[in-house]
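ok trying again, last paste got cut off:
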Amino acid sequence: MTLACGSGGKVYAGLGTTSPAIACFHKETGVLEIVLEGPPDTTGSAAVHQGCDGAVYGWLPSGENGDGIWYLLGEQGAEQVAAEEVNPSLYKGAGYNKLHRDLDAGRVLLKWQLSDRQIEIMEADGSLSRLPLAYKGGGTSLSPLFGGPDGILYGTSNHPLHLFTYDAAAGRLTDWGRGYRGAGRRRQYCRLCGSRQPHRGCCLCRRHGPFAGYGERMVHGTRTSAESPADL
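nice, full thing came through this time. structure:
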């Protein structure tokens, strides 16, 4: 979901996955309305952003080939505009990291990761600065948790996605690093760590830990109906 604040106290949201739409919420009146909806049977997500000109623009997918239509969102509703008329977003970054604006004095924010507690900035002279982030959070909830055939517990966290193991006998908790998780077409993803395309050996399970030696059948179940390593 993407969000953008417009004039007159309106907040726009780009929604979707199975049915794209753009919603508008007026904070003073409490009115929530759907401004735009995608064509029937169209999947994907709509997107909104606040341009550097202060206006709010929305994008709605129009088919399965990645095409879409841009709109100018405002007091007069939604007005279709050409892609070249869309002002660039005021906020930089990509995906979940599209939350910051341009830095001053010619500096560029290259990367920030709350889980790594670090910000990387490219200075105007080309040098790299790494700034530590010191904060306390509420932690992240856990996702799958399985008892492995070796007596070790295997699991992942949600956002951010990390594969971890816990050896109860030794009292040792090990973080094996970050991965990424996809939705749909479940056989393309590892059931344990959520990484994509386990048949190519690129998931976290196959790269790290005791499961690295077990192969496809043992961890991913792509050739068996077992629901967890403990069932094999």
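cool. The CA atoms of residues 117 and 135 lie 8 Å apart. The chain has a mean pLDDT of 76.
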